[in-house]
Automatic annotation (TrEMBL):
It is a multi-pass membrane protein. This is AzlC family ABC transporter permease. One of its GO terms (cellular component) is plasma membrane. One of its GO terms (biological process) is L-valine transmembrane transport. It comes from Candidatus Avoscillospira stercoripullorum. The keyword Transmembrane helix applies. InterPro entries: Brnchd-chn_aa_trnsp_permease. The chain crosses the membrane at residues 21-46, 58-79, 129-152, 158-177, 184-200, 206-230. Belongs to the AzlC family. It is found in: Cell membrane. Its main location: membrane.
């Protein structure tokens, strides 16, 4: 018997709890960066509620601290957050064709790396209410962590903030490790992506590219290669 929207929402709430906890830990450091840029706790919290992107917010706060112009900030935000366009396009392939526009817009509002990871791993078609549930428990964690980071300032030891942030990476690995264990193709692609990411990060050829541009380059290249070499059958996302 298919799950109802309500059941999918509650499942998303549960799966979003560890995301929210990870976001809270990482956002403490983000709040410190916002404080150093001259933002108040309310300003930084509203920013976290509207953006939900660690790289994008850090770039924005750094530019604000450097008194950059609004056009510069807008351009850099577009570059650092461009990867979410790719995630949204991929996630749209899992949605039922009759998904209302307002639901698609809400999904696009908070397609973070981790929310995308748990949503794309749902077997079959994606009920948007699952992602809505994950958003409900993850967004507040990011905003609250940012708020406390501003309020506490530099009172927290840097080592503690860094240690808390490691938990988010461990949680994100838990998203793709089960799939990699079941499918050797996924396992191979994960290994190749790790190696390619290291090379792009260290080779002088790519030194001029920003972190966001490198992520987009790798995502497009590896996804295109995987789609050509290992195409997914038409009924893979069947309900």
């Amino acid at each position: 018997m298919p799950l109802t929207h309500k059941q999918w929402y509650y499942k998303g709430l549960k799966d979003g709890i560890p995301i929210g906890l990870g976001y809270f830990a990482v956002a403490l450091a983000m709040g410190i960066a916002a404080r150093n840029a001259g933002l108040t706790a309310i300003q930084a919290t509203v920013t976290s509620l509207l953006i939900n992107a660690s790289a994008g917010q850090y770039v924005g706060f750094t530019l604000l601290a450097a008194r950059a112009g609004l056009l510069e900030v807008a351009l850099m935000e577009a570059v650092s957050n461009a990867r979410y366009l790719l995630m949204s396009c991929a996630l749209s392939q899992k949605l039922p064709t009759d998904t209302p526009l307002w639901q698609r817009l809400v999904l696009g509002f908070d397609i973070t790396d981790e929310v995308f990871g748990v949503s794309i791993s749902v077997p079959g078609k994606l009920d948007p209410y699952y992602t809505f549930g994950a958003m409900t428990t993850s967004i507040p964690g990011w905003a609250l962590g940012t708020f406390l980071g501003v309020v506490l300032g530099n009172a927290l030891p840097a080592a503690l903030v860094s240690a808390l942030g490691v938990g988010l990476y461990g949680m994100f690995m838990a998203v793709f490790v089960p799939a990699a264990r079941k499918d050797p193709v996924v396992l191979g692609l994960v290994a190749v992506s790790f190696a390619a990411s290291y090379l792009v990060e260290t080779l002088p050829l790519f030194a001029a590219l920003s972190a966001g541009a490198r992520i987009i380059l790798l995502t497009v290249t590896l996804s295109l290669a995987a789609a050509i070499l290992f195409p997914v059958k038409e009924d893979a996302y069947a309900a």
